[in-house]
Structure formats: C-alpha cells, structure tokens
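can u pls check wat happens w/ flavin-adenine dinucleotide
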Amino acid sequence: MPLINLKKKLKHFDQVNKLAIDSSTALFWLRRDLRLQDNAGLYHALKENTSVIPIFIFDIVILEKLEDKTDLRVQFIHQSLTQLQQQLNELGSSLLVFHGNPVEIFQTLQPKAIYTNQDYEPYAQLRDSKIKAILEKKSVPFHTFKDQVIFEKDEVLKDDGRPYTVFTPYSRKWKSNLTDLHLKKYPSEKYFSSFKKIKPTTLPTLPELGFEETLTAFPERVIKQAIIEKYDTQRNFPAIAGTTKLSVHLRFGTVSIRNLARIAQNKNEVWFNELIWRDFYQMILWHFPTVVRQAFKPAYDRIEWRNDLKEFELWRQGNTGYPIVDAGMRELNTTGFMHNRVRMIVASFLTKHLLIDWRWGEAYFAQKLLDFDLAANNGGWQWAAGSGCDAAPYFRVFNPTLQTEKFDSELVYVKKWVPELNTKEYRKPMVDHAFARERALKVYKEGLG
Ligand SMILES: Cc1cc2nc3c(=O)[nH]c(=O)nc-3n(C[C@H](O)[C@H](O)[C@H](O)COP(=O)(O)OP(=O)(O)OC[C@H]3O[C@@H](n4cnc5c(N)ncnc54)[C@H](O)[C@@H]3O)c2cc1C
C-alpha cells in the first residue's frame, strides 16, 4: 500500500479509537507490561475506576529509528497485543492501539485519568514528564506505578544514602530489604468487570505499521522449573537448555517479575541473583544516566580504540575465525538471542582482541537482540570492556579457545552455527590471540595512565 494511504489508514484507526474515550473513562497505558495478570498499574486503574480502557501506542519516535523492517521486537509486541486483544474481547472490552508521538496523542485526549507503569530509561522519563505537564494543564491525573522491577530508584541505597555501584553489597541489601509484600501478586483479575464495554477495534497490521512479518518462533512464555532447579550447574553451557530464555518476556512484561522472583526465592539462589542483576542495572541507569554515552569509569574514555570498520564487519557477520565468537554472532543474527556466556565472550573479543569501542558492540546488540534492554545491555558491555561500575578487570582477556574447551568441549554449540568448521571454507583466526592480548593490555594501560 502506498505510504500516503498507510498514513491515512493509521489516522483513521486513531480517530475511531478517540471516539471511545470520554471524560468518564480512565486509560491504562501499556508499555513494558504487556499482560493483564499481576500488573500493578492496571490493578490500580481497574480498582479505582469503573470504566477503564487499555491503550498501546506504537511510538514513532522509537519506530522511525529502526532500520530493519523485519525487526523482531516489533513483531513480538504486535503478537502480544493481538493476544491481549483476544483476552479483552472475551471480556467484552477492547484494546485501543495508536500510532504516533505519544506526547502529541495525549494532547488530543481528554480522559478521566491515565494509569501506567514506570519506565526508567532516559527517553521514557523525558517523554513522561512532557505528558504529565500536558495532562496537568487539562486537570487529567497521570498515575505511575512500580511494576517492572522489585526495587526501583532509591529503594536500595547504602547506609549513607548513596547508590551502590558494586553488585554483591547491593544484592545483600536488596535481600535484606525484601518482604513478602514486595513479591505479592496484584490480583487485577478481581476487577476485570471495570473494563469498559466497547466493540472490538481492529489492530493495525504489521505491514500497515510499516513492518514485515517473518516466520520467527519466539521463546515460549513458559517458566520451566526444571531448568531453574539446575540453573547453577547448567547455566554456562550454551549447547544445553540451561537458562530460561525468559528475557524477552521480562523485557516486554509478558511475565511478571514478582512471580518469577517468588519462584526463584524458593528454587535457586543463583537464578535469584540474576533477577537481582536486572534490578541492579536498572538502578545504575536511573542514578547514572550518563552511562548511556560515557564509560562509568571516566578514565576508560581515554582508551584509543582502533575501530577498524572491516574488522567490525567480520565480527558482526560471525566471520572472525574464532568458532565460539562466530557461533554466537550467527546465533544472534539468525534468532535475536545469544547465550549469556557467549555474549561475554563476543563482547570481550570485540573490545579487547579488536580494540573496538564497546559502544559499537552495544549498538549492534541493541539492533539485533530480541531481549534488548538499555540498562542490561549497557551494563553487560561496560562489564566486558572493563569500564563499568562492577566490571571485569581490564587485564582479564577471555581466551576464546579456553572458553570453548570449558563450556563447549564437544563443540556441539559451535558446530550448530559453524557447520563449515574444520573444512577449507572456514577462515583462519583474524588475529592471533597472544598478540591481541598483549596489544590490548598495552593500549588499556596507556589509556588509563
Ligand atoms: C554484552 C552483554 C549484553 C547483554 N544485553 C542484554 C540485554 O540487552 N537484555 C537482557 O535482558 N540481558 C542482557 N544481557 C544479560 C544476559 O546475557 C541475558 O539476560 C540472558 O542471556 C538472557 O537469557 P535467559 O533469559 O535465558 O536468562 P537466565 O539466565 O535464565 O536469567 C533470567 C533473567 O535474569 C535476567 N538476567 C540474567 N543475567 C543478567 C545480567 N547479567 N544482567 C541483567 N539481567 C540479567 C534476565 O532478565 C534473564 O532473562 C547481556 C549480557 C552481556 C554480557
């Protein structure tokens, strides 16, 4: 369909949606919380009002930056919204989906109130503060709730009131602050009768939104207790299903973090800690938003990266001659997922072996990862580069060969993604490990003075 017609069609959807909203209707704005169950903001909206409509906005500020028109995240959101729409239709209500700049959309709406869950990223904070100001002028309350994390902002601080910058003491305080109340379920379903009864609206299709459909199968929304039970012994081996693959569901809120934390608490301390890492990086981003552009430790911004474009391309394509690195990058390029151990190896390889700025790798992961999350991704990259708050020491340079011997000794993972291994077609390592290690140590040392 020509672009002009598409735009007209999307505008038409918006017009129809607006008809359902009047000053007696409260709106629940879905963002990183695409579920009806155990949803803090939705629970409050339904409990405190008798006529509630959930809305979702395809935010053009975000969408227009996505170059890949088969972006898997957009497909995942679309699929999740379609499922929500079915559930709401069964309840006699409907989801309203808008397309545009949220700030402009809220300028044109006059509901009773807006309810939503907190989003801690810098762009979201700025957007929400603009929306709040617009709504204030119209006397429309804008209520926000904590839903995405167990502890937010200033809820876990050092005794002197400053934020933690090291994980272990943070996690100790996190655990000592935890009560049953923090993990309590919000029983939104008790108030489902407060959804406004309206006719089902049609959601825009992916092509109407400017994206193409692919046949990708997303990780299932299933909490596999057997994996969690054995997590501490199996999590480092990419060839086995030893991690939960729930990251995309946590990213978009199709599962509740409280539910997972309750399970983790009783089943596996190591997995519980992973969920705390997630809170930790959100907290770091909240208190230190400059990490988005700068090294957490400023001295690391003096490192003279080589930033060789051709080498970056070989890394991106999974064509470095280091099988474990190539397997990881090919897995990422094909599925949008990469095992955590392998994320650490490929990130170390890019920053140390190739001396390419961690921000380049971070940006590539941001484009490709289905579970892309600004806080966790930035934290992971700064950890690998050594520049992060609680990072690996800079002189720890992962040896890809030893990592493979330890974590994929039978080469099961590697062969899955690099079938041409041990044939003439597979390239020689693009750089010698011992040479690259020495070079990295020298350049880091010089940069850090
Ligand atoms: C360079 C690099 C980049 C990363 N980028 C992201 C990202 O963009 N989004 C993302 O969710 N994770 C990121 N991680 C963390 C981690 O690799 C993924 O969360 C994990 O691989 C997801 O797989 P899983 O769901 O099977 O996790 P599991 O091992 O089953 O863990 C359960 C959940 O805990 C959380 N979690 C686990 N490890 C971490 C961690 N180190 N930091 C923060 N949260 C964690 C995730 O939400 C995960 O789904 C990154 C790690 C590195 C080294």
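The radius of gyration is 23 Å.
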